[in-house]
Amino acid sequence: MDAPLTARGVAQAHKLAVLVRSLPGRRFCSPQGRAQATADIAFGPGFTTDERLREIGIGAFAGLLLTDLRRDHPHLFTNDLSWYDRCPDGEGFEALARRCRSFLGDLDGPAVILTHGITLRMLRLLVLGLPMDRISDGDAGQGRVHLLRGGREYLLE
Question: What's the CA gap between 145 and 123, in Å, rounded?
Fold first, then answer.
């Protein structure tokens, strides 16, 4: 769901503003409300929204609590994020990968991208040339920057 930013989210957005201030490139953002609210703070005016940066669609699971999903569909939940690929009527990883490849293919220079957890993870896999089964690797937590340069990843916190 698209809940408003919490006080913690606002603080994280201000922290991001400091972290990205000196990074070169166009600013891009998911069109979803929380991402745009974060970009308003972190980027200021002048960022571009792009539909391809939306979070992965989880179909029939949208709007449901994770605790309820784990209780009602335990067979989908292991110790990784693969349940996102198995949501009834969901987008799935292959479709998300196509969407992210399309976005990356249209870039004409450096970019600073504000997106969501699973979409970020997919962008990382594609840029770093990692296989799909590595989508659960690493931490895509909030309030940090994943700098992808020269086939390597650096975390700015």
Answer: 13
Give the separation between CA 41 and CA 2, rounded to whole angstroms: 17
Answer for the pair 112, 23: CB distance below 8 angstroms, yes or no: yes
Is residue 63, in this structure, part of any structural domain at all? no
Q: What residue spans of the chain are helical by DSSP H?
A: 7-20, 33-42, 66-72, 92-106, 117-128
Dig out the tokens for 107 from the structure.
């870039």
**Which residue segment(s) compose the domain that 16 sits in?**
7-56+92-156
Q: Are 124 and 146 in contact (CB under 8 A)?
A: yes
Name the pTM for this structure. 0.93
Please report the beta strands in 95-151, taking only residues with DSSP state E, as ranges in sequence order.
111-114, 145-149
Q: Using one digit for the tens of pLDDT, what is the confidence trace for 59-72?
A: 999 999 999 999 99
